[in-house]
Specification:
Keywords: Cell membrane, Membrane, Transmembrane, Transmembrane helix. This is DedA family protein. It comes from Streptomyces tabacisoli. It is a multi-pass membrane protein. 80% of the residues lie in helices and 0% in strands. By secondary structure, it is an all-alpha fold.
């Protein structure tokens, strides 16, 4: 059975975004050619390159399982393994950067203070396990959270265990959604895509507010000192 042909066949009720081209087409061909390991490779790459959306790859993998291209258990196993492998690679990058180098780079950035990084580091030391576990279920941040875990040198067995559990939950929800929705699997991407935009929007607002506070702070201090000098 050919996944791309089935997904794009006339009269199948598939939505307009047929998996014959783009990321969906690439993922469909990868799953059809390599089965479960292909799905795992796609998700590993998605972790390394967040622009590759898991909200497309995972439901499509579930759809493939519903079509008999791969087994459902195989889909869940390989996609979770791919998530762990991709996250481990980012963890390794963070660990290679290291705490000292991170502080050196941070000190060169405008509008930030070393004390900010120190507070962030203290927060991660207290809540890092929850951040890794639940961060795996948040679009975009599910990939990025692996880097600070590496920088802070979280114990590797703990990191891998938390990543596996969090990824299994996220992957199961999206794979099963694609499995149950059948040729309407793209609905998952539509709604999770909205969630991704909300998360990104909130992050941009937070960064903008942070920059505004940093810029206005020195100005207010300068005015205050000028007023005292009169």
């Amino acid at each position: 059975m050919h996944l791309v042909t089935v997904a794009a066949s006339p009269g199948s009720g598939a939505p307009s975004g047929e998996p014959a081209s783009g990321i969906a087409g690439w993922a469909a061909r990868l799953v059809e050619t390599a089965g479960g390991p292909g799905a795992g490779l796609a998700i590993a790459l998605e972790n390394l390159f967040p622009p590759l959306p898991s909200e497309i790859i995972l439901p499509l993998t579930g759809f493939a399982a519903g079509q008999g291209v791969i087994g459902l258990a195989s889909a869940l196993f390989w996609t979770t393994l791919g998530s762990v492998v991709g996250a481990a690679a980012l963890y390794g990058i963070g660990r290679a950067i290291g705490r000292d180098r991170m502080y050196a780079l941070w000190a060169r950035l405008p509008l930030v203070k070393v004390s900010d990084l120190e507070r962030t580091e203290a927060w991660f030391q207290r809540h890092g396990t929850k951040a890794v576990l639940f961060g795996r279920m948040v679009p975009v941040f599910r990939s990025l959270v692996s880097v600070p875990a590496g920088v802070e040198r979280m114990r590797l067995p703990v990191f891998l265990s938390l990543t596996a559990v969090g990824s299994l939950v996220w992957n199961t929800v999206l794979v099963l959604a694609g499995y149950w929705l059948g040729d309407q699997w793209e609905l998952v991407e539509r709604y999770v895509g909205v969630l991704s935009k909300v998360v990104l929007g909130a992050a941009l607002v937070a960064v903008t507010a942070y920059v505004v506070v940093r810029v206005r702070g020195p100005r207010r201090k300068g005015r205050h000192r000028a007023g005292q000098g009169r």
